[in-house]
Amino acid sequence: QVRLVESGGGLVQAGGSLRLSCAASGRTFSNYHMGWFRQAPGKEREFVASIRGSGDMTYYARSVKGRFTISRDNAKNTMYLQMNSLKPEDAAVYYCAASTSGRSSISSYEYDYWGQGTQVTVSS
């Protein structure tokens, strides 16, 4: 069983920054491929970014590449998402997810544990 808890969401003006954190339980965090997804009202959940267990490979959605940075600290069982140059269209509930198989994927079906989500609101 893996428990994921997100934090760091909030209200920010367009052009501003936020850093999301995802704290994970479990002893084998470094084996998990971790991802961030988001879901805006009336829209499907979409992939944002993911990172391999070792942290040596990262993947980004085209819409956030160059503005968001995903990272992890395996010693702290924590993953981060640094979001810069935020736009109103980035507003959503952001979820962290763990793929305990270790496989990298942009599909939510590959991830078997999810956090409760943290709200990000961007004002224009």
Describe the 3D structure.
- This protein has 124 residues and is mainly beta.
- The chain is 0% helix and 48% strand.
- The chain has no helices and 11 strands.
- Strands 2, 4, 5, 6, 9, 10 and 11 form a 7-stranded mixed sheet that branches.
- A hairpin with a 4-residue loop joins strand 7 and strand 8.
- The radius of gyration is 13 Å and the shape is globular.
- The relative contact order is 0.31.
- The mean pLDDT is 96.
Summarize this structure briefly:
The chain is mainly β and 124 residues long. It has strands spanning 4-7, 10-13, 18-24, 33-39, 46-51, 58-60, 68-73, 78-83, 92-99, 113-114, 118-123.
Total number of strands: 11
Shape assignment:
globular
Let me know the average pLDDT: 96
Uncertain stretches of 5 or more adjacent residues: none
Through-space gap between termini: 40 Å
User: Which structural class matches the secondary elements?
Assistant: mainly beta
Q: What pattern of helices and strands is seen along the backbone?
A: EEEEEEEEEEE
**Major sheet description:** 7 strands, mixed
Radius of gyration: 13 Å
Helicity level, as a percent range? under 10%
Number of helices: 0
Strand content: over 45%
Task: Chart the SSEs and their pairings.
Layout: E1 4-7, E2 10-13, E3 18-24, E4 33-39, E5 46-51, E6 58-60, E7 68-73, E8 78-83, E9 92-99, E10 113-114, E11 118-123
Parallel strand pairs: 2-11
Antiparallel strand pairs: 1-3, 3-8, 4-5, 4-9, 5-6, 7-8, 9-10, 9-11
